[in-house]
Amino acid sequence: MPDDFERMWSDLAPVGRSATSGGYFRQPFTAPERELADWFREQARARGLALDSDATGNLVAWWDPDGGIVPDVLAVDPPDSVSQRQGLSRTGGVLTGSHLDSVLDGGAYDGPLGVVSALAAVDELRERGVVPARPIGVSVFVEEEGSRFGLACLGSRLASGAIEWEKARGLRDRDGVAFEEVVEGGGPGLLDGVEMFVELHVEQGRDLVDRGAAVGVASEIWPHGRYRFDFRGEANHAGTTRMEDRVDPMLTYAMTALAANKQARLAGERATFGRVEVTPNGTNAVPSQVLAWLDARCSSEAALGELVETVTRQATERAERDGTAVEVTAESVSDAVTFDPALAARIAADHESGDWPVIPTAAGHDAGILAAQGIPTAMLFVRNPTGVSHSPAETASIPDCLAGVHALAETLERLAT
Ligand code: HGY
Ligand code: MN
Ligand code: MN
Questions:
Q1: Each residue of 198-241: pLDDT tens digit?
Q2: Most buried pick, 58, 62, 141, 340, via CB within 10 A?
Q3: 5-222+336-416 CATH
Q4: What is the pLDDT of residues 74-95, one digit of tens each?
Q5: What does the H/E/C string look like for the chain?
Q6: Ligand 1, residues 103, 105, 227, 331: which to mutate, most atoms within 8 A of Cβ?
Q7: Which of the four CATH numbers 3.30.70.360, 3.40.50.720, 3.40.50.1000, 3.40.50.2300 does domain 224-334 have?
């Protein structure tokens, strides 16, 4: 099994990796991310798993109940209509998996660790001769990061019915390409019959390393959102325009970024402006427009509402002083998620290393979307020695990754036999 994991891990390592930063650019429906999707299909075929997919490009590779090899007809050309998939038994299915897309200049583990670990966990169960009483599916949801079309967990929101296709089709990337130009469609179907979902993910924080634990279970996901601040001013000459005559949106933005940081620190919450687009972005001109995205994450929905409302109010007040205008649009909001406590406790209890810790996270996941749509869901976290994520520096040790594979295999055995 270990070489399985390490072989698969080394397959993925070079795909979409920047030669300069060492980070990953695996935006959905770009060449590197499509190469990973093809790799996944190949891994499914090599294991005789029945490959299922939907119009959005979400994938599930099913291990059929008696642990046998599924008819080639399903393993080769996956049917694309739900009726054709009927022959595939997913009733009572236990799903496990994650995503293969990355943030811009992201780490290697966020997403792919959950997919590779799921395949390796199926390998381990098979090597141990375990025959599940329920179908076990390995899933890949597309555009989990929302790094291209702006809405986090876009693939799992469509597959679980959390968002209608009509609302998703018009989402555009930074080049103006619409989502409906890169996918056929989207909607529920792929998850019919799925009774529970377990996502393994690298921890994006230091809780496990501070506890000295290799594996943990998620208790909750903080509510969080992404808000587009559109600051408008008047373009003008950087040299000849007196300071008192300026209508400078960069100033309003800068004060808003400082205000968000201060507000989050005062409230003990999280706020980040990590993306800014300046027009015309000239060196010797006062800009006409500054677009900036606030990523806000709080320990409760009330706190999130209050933080965003306070920052919006302070931005508006500053705009009045600067003579600029500001418009705020919520682009992606995820409500608080509390994972099924009984399922989390059942998964975390009685292991060789004792009970696994049950810990919260402020990172969003497809598991949060499926949980919110009523599918009993759990998450396993693998220790991240630095806690760093959404960065080329994201890492996890191979022994911890193998401990995660084993933990996932144990969990699947508990849930599916
Ligand atoms: O942004 C997030 O919380 C997650 O990593 N998609
Ligand atoms: Mn992420
Ligand atoms: Mn992730």
A1: 999 999 999 999 999 999 999 999 999 999 999 999 999 999 99
A2: 141
A3: 3.40.630.10
A4: 444 444 434 335 456 678 999 9
A5: CHHHHHHHHHHHCCCCECCCCCCECCCCCCHHHHHHHHHHHHHHHHCCCEEEECCCCCEEEEECCCCCCCCHHHHHCCCCCHHHHCCCCCCCEEEEEECCCCCCCECCCCCHHHHHHHHHHHHHHHHCCCCCCCCEEEEECCCCCCCCCCCCCHHHHHHCCCCCHHHHCCCECCCCCEHHHCCCCCCCCCCCCEEEEEEEEECCCCHHHHHCCCEEEEEEECCEEEEEEEEECCCEECCCCCHHHCCCHHHHHHHHHHHHHHHHHHHCCEEEEEEEEEECCCCCEECCEEEEEEEEECCCHHHHHHHHHHHHHHHHHHHHHHCCEEEEEEEEEECCEECCHHHHHHHHCCECCECCCEEEECCCCHHHHHHHCCCCEEEEEECCCCCCCCCCCCCCCHHHHHHHHHHHHHHHHHHHC
A6: 103
A7: 3.30.70.360
